[in-house]
Each structure stands twice: as structure tokens, then as C-alpha cells.
Design a protein that fits this description.
The chain is an alpha/beta fold and 312 residues long. The chain is 42% helix and 18% strand. It has a domain of 217 residues: 3-Layer(aba) Sandwich (Rossmann fold). Helix 1 links the parallel strand 1 and strand 2. The two termini are 31 Å apart.
């Protein structure tokens, strides 16, 4: 297939492009900055340049390559985000999830693409009721905290637009929290640095459940989705959703850091942003069972335990 990867210069794009090329596909990377071009050429992909929020630029770039499939992996987070205001930190990414999605879908339709794969997210968007691990049939949070509201609306927008795009074989992949090269959870990533400095604490019983996925496994899962004809929305995570109380101390030990500090919940409520309290105490994880069965896929790092030791 001829495939355009939008967001090819990001952590996921850098992992995905070589996997697609190795599988025999012809790849173009849609990026905004000219300086991203040489790395794409070196990887074996053709660079396409466009501002994803500019409909005309996106249409010209996509039409120039005339792809069979388009992959939406565009995000716009700074290297070290200021998460005091969660929605503000994701404001540019949320534009890419709304305006950017519309522009890519319109361009894909214009060239007659038959496959459209979009990045979504599994974990905190799920409703904080019932069991600790959610499947795709479980509802998303109907009344999100104000800290998350605009970001959750943008995620829902992506999934709704892609679900309606049956003419281009739309599929949304709800990835777990990324780790590995180029991500916040890498050897030099900002989140690992926060753990080293003991600035990411255990709050109360730390029972918020997270699901992770290594960027290399994001790439193989996305390839599997591209090469199938299935549509819909799928969780793409490793096999072991885990509470913060389990994974955060393990991460600290794996990187040679001191044990994270423990903060009582009643103190954390005063000192920390509300979103961090939710992330650490009440969010739900996600099951990958449906994706594994539908696509005959297995993650290379089945557990974050192995991944944190060997994949950061």
C-alpha cells in the first residue's frame, strides 16, 4: 500500500515508518517543519509538508502522494509540558484531533483512500465506575472533571468522525500510555526525570489503574490495523493494566531512583492539581483482549515490568 503517516516526526511516527517500510509499504510522512524532511528521506519515506490545520495545504500534500491509506498520529505536546492546566497543555493537540482530523479525512476521501487509522487514547477517558479495567463496550466518562473536559471532547470527536468514515475504512486505536524512545517515559523523558527527582508521588492508596504500551508495539499494532479490513474502535495496550501503587515504585527501582514519596490524599487535595489526583487514585485501565483476538497481535513487551527494565 501507499500510506501517508501524518505526524511522522513524532515518537510514534519514528517507530512506525520503519515498520511499515519493512513490511513492504510505500510511505510518505506528513510533517509541518522542513527540517523533518532529511530524517524521513534517510528512513526511506517521502516527506510531505503541510500545516495540518490548513485544509488547502493538507489536500495538496495528500493528493501529491495519492495514498491508499492515511494514518493520523499527530500531536503537539511540548518537550516538558506544564500540566498545571491539563486542557491547556493539550490545546494544540486537541486542534489536531478536531480540525486536523477533518482535514485528513477530507483529503483521504478526495484521493479515494480505502483505509484511515487514527490515534485515540485508552485509560483515563473511561468512566470511573465499576471494575478497574475497561473494554471497548464500556462507556467513556459522561461527566469528566473540568481539568479533562476539552481533551476528552477532542478524543470523542476523533472517534466519532472516524466511526462515520466507513467509506475510507475508519478505525480508531485507543493506545495505552506510551513509553520508549522519544516519549515522556524514556531514559531522558520528562516523566522519568520527575520520578528521579521524587516529584511524582504516590497519593493515598494510589489505586488509579494505568495501561501502557511501548512505541515499538504501537507500530506493530498499527501495521496490523492497516493491513486488515476491520473498522471500529479498539484498545491497544500491553497485557497488564496496573495500579499506580504497583508500577510507579517499580519504575523508580528500574531507573535506579529512590522510592517515590507517599502523600496522604487529604494533603494532596490541597497541594496538587485535581487531574493528578484523579490519575493517581481513580482512573481505569483498558483491556487489549478484543484487539489481540481480532488482529492476531501480541505485544513485544507483554508487561510494563519487562518494558520498564529493557525498553525505556
Amino acid at each position: 500500500m501507499r500510506i501517508v503517516v501524518a505526524g511522522a516526526s513524532g515518537a510514534v511516527g519514528k517507530a512506525l515508518v520503519p515498520v511499515l517500510i519493512k513490511a513492504g509499504h510505500e510511505i510518505a510522512g506528513l510533517v509541518r517543519r522542513k527540517e523533518s524532511g532529511p530524517a524521513l528521506i534517510q528512513a526511506g519515506a517521502a516527506p510531505l509538508f503541510a500545516d495540518a490545520l490548513n485544509k488547502a495545504e493538507v489536500h495538496r500534500a495528500i493528493a501529491a502522494f495519492n495514498p491508499d491509506a492515511v494514518v493520523h498520529q499527530m500531536t503537539a505536546l511540548p518537550a516538558v509540558p506544564n500540566f498545571r492546566d491539563f486542557d491547556k497543555a493539550f490545546a494544540q493537540t486537541n486542534q489536531l484531533r478536531t480540525i486536523g482530523t477533518d482535514n485528513l479525512l477530507a483529503a483521504a476521501r478526495e484521493v479515494g483512500a480505502r483505509r484511515f487509522v487514527a490515534q485515540s487514547f485508552a485509560g483515563w477517558p473511561y468512566a470511573r465506575t465499576g471494575g478497574p479495567v475497561k473494554s471497548e463496550s464500556d462507556p467513556l466518562d459522561p461527566d469528566p472533571s473540568p481539568a479533562f473536559r476539552r481533551t476528552l471532547e477532542a478524543i470523542q470527536y476523533v472517534e466519532s468522525a472516524v466511526a462515520a468514515a466507513r467509506d475510507v475504512g475508519g478505525i480508531s486505536l485507543r493506545y495505552g500510555a506510551f513509553y520508549g524512545p522519544g516519549t515522556a517515559l524514556s531514559g531522558d523523558g520528562w516523566m522519568v526525570e520527575q520520578v528521579r527527582r521524587r516529584r511524582l508521588p504516590l497519593i493515598g492508596k494510589a489505586q488509579g489503574v494505568w495501561s501502557f504500551i511501548h512505541v515499538a508495539d504501537v507500530a506493530t499494532a498499527t501495521l496490523a490495523a492497516l493491513e486488515s479490513e476491520s473498522t471500529g474502535t479498539f484498545n491497544v495496550t500491553d497485557d497488564e493494566p496496573a495500579p499506580v501503587a504497583a508500577w510507579l515504585p517499580f519504575l523508580a527501582e528500574a531507573i535506579g531512583a529512590k522510592t517515590p514519596r507517599q502523600i496522604p490524599y487529604f494533603i494532596a487535595r490541597v497541594l496538587l492539581p485535581s487531574y493528578l489526583l484523579e490519575m493517581m487514585t481513580v482512573v481505569r485501565g483498558a483491556s487489549n483482549a478484543r484487539f489481540k483476538q481480532a488482529f492476531s497481535w501480541q505485544p513485544g513487551f507483554a508487561s510494563w515490568r519487562e518494558g520498564f527494565r529493557h525498553g525505556l
